[in-house]
HAD family hydrolase (Dorea ammoniilytica), 238 residues
Amino acid sequence: MIKAVFFDVDDTLYSQQQAFNGAYKELLEGKYEISRDVLYKRFKYYSDDIYHYYMDGEWTLDEVGIYRIVHTLGDYGLSCTEELALEFQHRYVYYQQYIYLSETTKNMLDALKDRVTLGIITNGNSKRQHGKIQTLGMERWMDEKNIFVSGDLEFAKPDTRIFLLPQNTLGLKAEEMLYIGDSYEHDMQGAKAAGWNTIWMNRRGHDIPEEDCCADRVVPNEEALFQQLCQMLKINSR
């Protein structure tokens, strides 16, 4: 029986494309003959691929931002100056101040909060991640003590310690824990290694491993996630 549900933040509770769309509209719209959504999917690929350099202190956030937009455009034969790339990064960060939960996600959290303990496990800089959590208004659904940010700790996903910490804090068993996240490597593999139940929020349509898949369930969006949780926890969503 599931007694606690923990979420990733970026591209799980909200779509990171919200901030990308703002920066794109301001700086890139009309410059290139390519779909914004196509560009974002590649942008997200590079973001996931190189973010560990920032987490490890090898690159600055600006360096990560420049690299990912330059290489995103470059993959489609499009050029981008370093000046434009840096400006895009700054506007992307700016628009993160305006991220929001979808109405479906709000309804889902409302349905969950009186049935299970809710929490967050997220990788990233402490100030930035706590800022996003505050912007999203997550205190409405969960206690601050159930929010775990790798920047406050000495380990990060997929290290099993970041999953065992909230489990032990709550005094629960692994089979009573559920984790929902968008990264197969960091979220699904990490949570499954800790013995947790898992749901993969696969917004970008990544290939699903055919063997030894670490995701117990895979959903493409908030609506499908809500349906899955209602089935698992026997919640009437109507």
User: Anything to note?
Assistant: The chain has a mean pLDDT of 95. DSSP finds nine helices and six strands in the chain.
